[in-house]
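Quick entry between incubations.
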Amino acid sequence: MTRWITIDGRAVPFADGQTVMQAATDAGVFIPHLCYHPDYAANGSCKMCTCKINGRQMSSCTTRAVEGQVIESNTEELNSERRALAQMLFAEGNHHCPSCEESGNCVLQNMAYRLGMTALMFPNFHPGRATDATHPDVLLNRDRCIYCELCVRASRDTDGKDIFCISGRSENKSLTINSDSGTLADSGLSIDDKAAEVCPVGALIKKREGFKQPIGEREFDRLQGSGAQIRAPRMPKLIREPGKKLKLATCSLAGCFGCHMSFLDIDERILELVEHVEFDRSPLDDLKEFTGECDIGLIEGGVCNTENIETLREFRKRCKVIIAVGACAISGGVPALRNTIDVRELLEETYINGMGVDNGQIPTDPELPHILERVSPVHEVVKVDFFLPGCPPSADAIWRVLTSVVADEQPNLPYDLMHFD
Ligand code: SF4
Ligand code: SF4
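Done. Structure below.
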């Protein structure tokens, strides 16, 4: 006789011994998760799959399905807690998606998209843990490890080798290698081991195989169960004067100008845009000062020096809505890769010790803006009203957001326009 549980009001059958997660997955009901893998015993460590089961919060991957259970999963309360977990994972590692070999195929990144996470809300730890590149075929970047223990389980249960373990607690937690040297080189790990391919993020990756074609939402659906994006980011409504064009300002802080280039990629649609929008201070029209108050300020780039801070404050004062555009504005992006290095060391390497530098000196002209200790995202300096992720965001994503604002609608960024890379 078939027995049933209910998940978000939907009747789901289960077999003897199945967990709530297994029953949900078999029925195509998506419960967000990171450390769960159908081939391994669940360890319930990531807490992303926490549901309300008969009114109590419990991990769905470790709780057995019982006849008549009532389960809530896709609720704003639970999804907001899951977003906080994703936020903490991003903050305690170095997750610079634009420079990560796993981008587009990463379970953490995909989960963040699904949960509608567009920006980092906690200050980043920038941990700088040791990378292990000693193995000829496999690289371990500990700063991207989310401690899901899948490599631990795969090595022990499938490969019969027991190469990995998690040691330490809190910020001293680390993925440790069981070998004489403590490195992968003499660990006995083979490129064909299950442990070498099971990592859901870009922590343990095969060398020479990075930057594969992103597998996309449909494939994630196949691997993780179906489920649409859970929450669309929201923008404050602009109060507009009837018949007046919206005024738009843009600037580039520490970035590559790629987001502005992407803006220009809207091509002939810009003619449609200027019917409704007038440009103010922007490199696009070469206006270096504001001519008045603005409706929208688009900010590209991270905050790396004192001039960037002044520019940002001016934009915040002049613009009703600030949109942080692209990975550098949202998380510090590629410029923030320097955050694990001392600024003095960085300047000495660039101006004194670097390759090809003779008789160099660190510039001290008072006209030059001071470099900051670390590159910050824009929202650590001023309030940001909307985040448009991407490295760069596509022209279509920029177009979607601007035309939504012009039409007085909330911008809706579907999965295929939401990218950290
Ligand atoms: S793609 Fe790489 S950097 Fe981005 S979340 Fe995944 S592991 Fe982290
Ligand atoms: S290296 Fe990858 S598989 Fe291993 S614990 Fe870290 S995130 Fe999980």
